[in-house]
Design a protein that fits this description.
Elements: H1 20-26, E1 40-43, H2 46-54, E2 58-62, E3 78-80
Parallel strand pairs: 1-2, 2-3
GO molecular function: sn-glycerol 3-phosphatase activity
InterPro entries: HAD-like_sf, HAD_sf
Protein name: (DL)-glycerol-3-phosphatase 2
Length: about 100
């Protein structure tokens, strides 16, 4: 992770579904702001999905419990039930390194 931004950050004027919480860290990458289209957000709440989409970012929704609200799944780019279901190559990312267990 490059940047962690919390709700009390001075650049976060409004909470989700405002995109402030995603735009603030995008501005902090070395070399200047990152194009929102190159940012992948992981979310588990409808307000976060809306915030990321409003910022122009791609969203993977992780829903570990299928009984949770799923009304926002159509807005997300991908829905998974666990991070183990995430395939980095679908997003042009390198594969995970295998760790010794």
């Amino acid at each position: 992770m490059h940047h962690v931004v919390l709700g009390d950050d001075p650049e976060v004027k409004q909470g989700k579904p405002s995109s402030d919480v995603f735009i603030a860290p995008a501005k902090r990458f070395e070399g200047g702001p990152v194009d929102p289209q190159n940012i992948l957000v992981f979310e588990d709440a409808s307000s976060g999905v809306l915030a990321a989409k409003n910022a122009g970012m791609s969203v993977v929704v992780m829903v570990p419990n299928p009984r949770l609200d799923n009304s926002y799944h159509q807005t997300a780019d991908k829905v998974i039930s666990t991070l183990l279901d995430f395939n980095p190559s679908e997003w042009g990312l390198p594969p995970f390194k295998k760790s010794a267990a």
